[in-house]
Amino acid sequence: MTSFEFARQLNGRSRSREISIEEQRLAKAHGLVVVFGASDDLMEFEGAIYDEITACYGGLAWLMDNGTVIDNDNISDEEDEQMSSAGIYTIRAVWKPEEPKGALWLIKTEIPHATFDIYDDENPAQIFCRGVVFALVDALPPSMVA
């Protein structure tokens, strides 16, 4: 299953039903990572990476060589600079982005990915979050893929 197929499967879900346990297992089996905003302060990682980070004030996660994530609250300015210059991929949670209009969360990354929309439970016409799905192999440095 590709990231595009998986994102298509998740698209249109409501906030309380983003991804089932069965779908988490399926994503993991296919090496896919699903990232979306949850509540008003979390960025969730499901599938090949299982984690959550605080996403307050523009949450930023660094995707490390071993497939783990580190949030910007847990690194020094020096480490931030080193990771930036090393070209380590990031995933950012943007609160109330300009696009998509009316959305509360937008997940952004340089990793090749597909997007999906989660809608608000209380207002089904409003996008709660535009999340991303990517293949973990696409996010790792070439030396880790061999």
Structure description:
It is built from five helices and ten strands; from the N terminus they run H-E-H-E-E-E-E-E-H-E-E-E-E-H-H. The mean pLDDT is 87. Strands 1, 2, 3, 4, 5, 6, 7, 8, 9 and 10 form a ten-stranded mixed beta sheet that branches. The longest helix is centred in the middle third of the chain and has 10 residues, at 77-86. It is of the alpha+beta class and 146 residues long. A hairpin with a 7-residue loop joins strand 9 and strand 10. 34% of the residues are buried. The protein has one domain (3-140).
Features:
36% strand, 24% helix
**Oligomeric state, counting identical vs distinct chains:** single chain
Largest sheet: 10 strands, mixed
Domain tally:
1
- Give the class from helix and strand content and strand pairing: alpha+beta
Roughly what is the average pLDDT, rounded to an integer?
87
C-alpha geometry: globular
The radius of gyration over CA amounts to: 15 Å
Note the beta-strand portion.
Answer: 35-45%
Give the helix/strand layout.
Blueprint: H1 3-10, E1 13-14, H2 21-29, E2 32-38, E3 42-47, E4 51-54, E5 60-63, E6 69-71, H3 77-86, E7 90-95, E8 105-109, E9 114-119, E10 127-135, H4 136-139, H5 142-145
Parallel strand pairs: 1-9, 8-10
Antiparallel strand pairs: 2-3, 2-10, 3-4, 5-6, 5-7, 7-8, 9-10
